[in-house]
Amino acid sequence: MLSDWRLQKDASIKNDFNNLHDVGHNGRIGNTVTVNGRIPGNFDVRAGERIRLRLINAANARIFGLEFEGHTAQVIAIDGHPVEPHAPANNRIVLGPAMRADILLDLRGQPGKRYRVVDAFYRHREYKLLDLAYSDAAQLRDLADAKPIRLPANPLSEPDLENAERHDIMLGGGMMGGMISAIMDGQRTNMRTLMHNGLLWSINGVAAKGHILDPFLTLKRNQSCRLTLINDTAWHHPMHLHGHVFRVIARNGQPTRRSEWQDTVMMDPRERVEIAFVADNPGDWMFHCHILEHQSGGMFGLIRVI
Questions:
Q1: For the segment 105-134, what is each residue's pLDDT rounded down to a tens digit?
Q2: Which distant-in-sequence residues (6+ apart) come within 8 Å of 181 by Cβ?
Q3: d(CA 300, CA 285)
Q4: What is the pTM of this model?
């Protein structure tokens, strides 16, 4: 369980929540990172072990980009859904808030040595998360011929891509985003008024406020859907859909290699991502950025399935 905290010198939590700087930029990034609720030190391992880790990003806003020095992690599941085992791009596990990944780590290091696990997501802010600390014990077994483990697929409804209903969803706002107005409480509102209400983000031109919302999209039950998410902002957004999982089928017009099942998809600045799913769960479902300052600043809405 990965998380972070913004602490003062006496280790108390700094009480500066929901300030507009955090809301309009990359959220409330802490200055202290924990693993399973503790400041990490060593992770004790033995040469020849194979371990399975489920990594969960429980942070408010921090995006983790984990690199395992001297090791190649194999991703076997994302958000709890099995994928074809593969090494991640650039050998880096990227997890936005709410995202999860199951990985296999074959421990091929040398007994008695230490190997860093580094969080290198933010430019010029790389730091050591912890050390893989190998015991002096002899290698447990030879992993030269070890094969990746492929998990059985979850039973999910496959979307009909050819006959799917299509919709575009535009994400706007934030600093350097160019948003000059948005709809708040049903009225077109200027940026000064939006900021006075703590709102700096929008979905389809609406800066959401409060807890009772009209849906911005209504889908028929059991209808296949293809949604094109357009990040018209200068910031990353891990977009999360409640009540459903979806296949990530394209990025910037290029089909994805594995069409992973996910419930949270990381979007880079100015990126277009296409997702597909079957709307088989009736109800009102929140769709929002899981950087919580972005959500509280207006980037959330409801998708209704009837």
A1: 999 999 999 999 999 999 889 999 999 999
A2: 188, 189, 190, 191, 194
A3: 10
A4: 0.94
